[in-house]
Structure formats: structure tokens, C-alpha cells
Amino acid sequence: MTSSSIVERITTVASFDFGAGETPENIVVLTDGTICTTLLTGGTVWRSTTGVEHVAGPGADAMAVGIASDADDRLYVAVRSEDANVAGIWRRDAAGHWARFAAAAIRTGLNGITFDEAGTLFAADSVNGEILFLPPGDDTLRPWLDDDRMKPTSPHDPVSSTGVNGLKVWDDDLYVTNTAQATVHRVDIQDGRPGKVTEVHANIPADDLAFDAAGNLYLAVHPENTVRRIAPDGTTTVLATADDGLDGPTAIAVVEDGLLVTNLGMLGTRHTPSLLRLTMEVGAPVLPRPALPR
Q: Dihedral, CA atoms, 255, 242, 129, 173, nearest 10 degrees?
């Protein structure tokens, strides 16, 4: 049984070693079904087909945060680092080799990343409260939106110090969570530039978000240990809670038979990081996967 009658069952897809720094942070599912999860403090990525891989190399000063993929199933990972040669977006090619794809300033608090259909990559800077972008062909992340509604509220704890966090493109607009301000905003994309910013949901300190083709919005709310669904008509349903095993859920992905959710462990209390599957009826998965130059 689960807390919600909508969720048929909750199962563990993978378990991770908290002591080894395996704290799952973000997730993407490739077109071939491979599940990929960044392991934040280890600077690594777990792939359901190949296991744990170092992004910037063993021993590198690296925190693996946001993750995305393109039409060729190449992975892109946002890496925080105090090393100017490491900070930025890293890409895994078809042969399994990792290389830095785009640079970022070492002060950048990279977090969620996502693509639009045109191949522009958007990246959250949670520490400075900005959205960055990387147009196709560029090799350095640049400012896209600097707005008070993207800012953190205080530097004193992991929640209030995390501003803009999760990013997803839906219906040609960019949707963003601000964990500190407990809001979800829609940013109109106009010819590649930010347009009107609209608050669409409040009082939800969400981390990551995802959409299905029916327009349902799914939110991983790690401070509350909940997963929520908001229907297009605004109806909100709590799908799972701590009673169902959630412990600091940080990311969410829609798959054909339900949702995948990461349990971070680092901000939780049980320190048993894992990847969970919530089996339930959902709309078809939807996520831009642009065709990018090799």
C-alpha cells in the first residue's frame, strides 16, 4: 500500500552507498531505456547499464549535479568545482568518454539543466539565483535571466540558500522551481531570450520537476519528503510521502509506467540513498532531446 491510491506500488530500482558519496541528485532516462543518475558528492554518474562512472576523472574536485541528454543519447552533466578547468558542462560521447563541453565560472552554483528543441541548454545557478544558457555551438555558459524571483533567501541552510533549482521546457516555455522561495515560475522564451516571468504555483519548496504529455506537472519536494502531481486544472495530489520511503527526494522523471524519483540521503535523515519507481498511470513522457552537432 502507498499513501496515495493513485500509486499502485513503490519499488527500489537501485540502492547507493552513502558512505562512498553516492548521493543521487538528478536523473534522465535515455531513449534506449538506460537510467542515468548523477551522484552529487562523488562527482560521478550511475548508469543502469554500466554502473558508476567518474565524470571529470577519479579524484577530481567535482560535484555532479544536473543531467540531460540529446537525440543521440549523449549525456550532459553540470559539474560544480573550484577548479577552473573542471567547472561547467561535461558530455559523455557514444564511446563512453567524458570531456568538458562548456566552461562555467568557479563561483557558479550549477544545478538543474535542460534543453529546448532548438538545442539551447539552460542551466540553473542556485547559489547566485540566475539562469544561464548555452546556445548551440557555444562553449561557455552565459547569463540568460537575472531576476529576484530566481534568488535564494538566505545563505544559512541548504533550503534557503538554494534559489532557482529545477528546469524543464514544456510547451515551448521554461518552467523553473525556486526551492528557497517555494515557487514555480514559467518563463516565456521569445526568440531565444527570456520574456514574461509568471508565478504559476506557490508554497511548494520543490527541487526538481517533470511534465508528461497530458500537461501534468510532477514535483519532487525534498524539504517535505513528498512527490506531488499538479493537473492542468490546478488539482494537486500528494502521490507519496516519507511513510512510503521518501527521504529528501531531489529529482523526478516520467517513464511509461510511472515516475522515477531519487532519494538523496544527504539532506534526509535515514541516509539510505536510492532510486525509486512509483508505478502509476501517467501521460506519455515528454522531454526535449535536440539533435546536436558531433
A: 30
Contact 131, 192 (CB under 8 A): no
Res. 266 pLDDT band, cuts 50 70 90: low
DSSP letters spanning 107-172:
T--EEEEEE-TTS-EEEEETTTTEEEEE-TT--B-EEEEE-GGG--S-SSSTTTT--EEEEEEETT
**What percentage of the chain carries pLDDT values higher than 90?**
87
Q: Is residue 291 a contact partner of residue 17, using CB atoms and an 8 Å limit?
A: no
Q: What is the pTM of this model?
A: 0.96
Q: Grid coordinates standing for 6?
A: 493513485
Beta carbons within 8 Å of 149's beta carbon, 6+ residues apart: 178, 181, 183, 185, 197, 199
Return d(Cα 227, Cα 238) in angstroms, integer. 6
Residues in the chain: 294
Q: Is 187 helix (H, G, I), strand (E, B) or coil?
A: strand
33: left (phi > 0), else alpha (psi -120 to 50), else beta? Answer: left
Q: What is the mean pLDDT of residues 33-49?
A: 95
The 10 Å Cβ neighbour count of residue 89 is 24
Taking alpha carbons only, the member of 61, 31, 36 closest to residue 46 is 36
> What per-residue confidence (pLDDT) applies to 291?
87
Please say if the pLDDT value at position 170 is more than 70: yes
Task: Cell numbers for 22, please give them.
Answer: 553516492
Alpha helices in 98-175 (DSSP H): none
